[in-house]
Amino acid sequence: MSGLFVRVSTSLFAGLIFSQSSEFTQQYVQRLGGAANELAAVVARFDASAAREGLPRDVAVERLKSSADGFVARQGDDAAATIARERDVSRRYDALRAEVPVLRSFAALADPDWPMIARTVDDFRPAIPVTADGLFLTVAGFAGGWALGAGVSGAAGMRRRRKARRAARPIDGSHLG
What we know:
Layout lengths: L2 H50 L4 H9 L4 H29 L5 H7 L3 H10 L8 H37 L9
Helix pairs in contact: 1-3, 1-5, 1-6, 2-3
């Protein structure tokens, strides 16, 4: 395989992947935002119910969890899990919204919500990179792919040259001295 072909093909592949990362991240952020909004509404309803009984959230959750009725105790576990999930999803959403658009893809990889990413992948539709950050990431991916292709091609070339030198050495050892 020619070194140029390896460089061009890896560059094109990396450019394609990087160009879509901006759109994928946008769709992921939208999912996080929708989930954060809905979970916040559920937690707000729970807090309102607890407040009507004069209970702070943590006391209400513990009261449910410590109930002798197994069903009610599971509701307490579910409430605690929903509150934790709302906090986690909102934190990720806020962090990604605060990030500069061109770095959002990398920030999403630093703290991924794997179930949400899996659902985003299921529905993902590629986009043409027309935004500044999409174009920048396309060029960055192409450049990174070019460098990777050059490295692979260079390593393969060094190996071929080494084999050729070994094959060209005399077998009798007269080249040693």
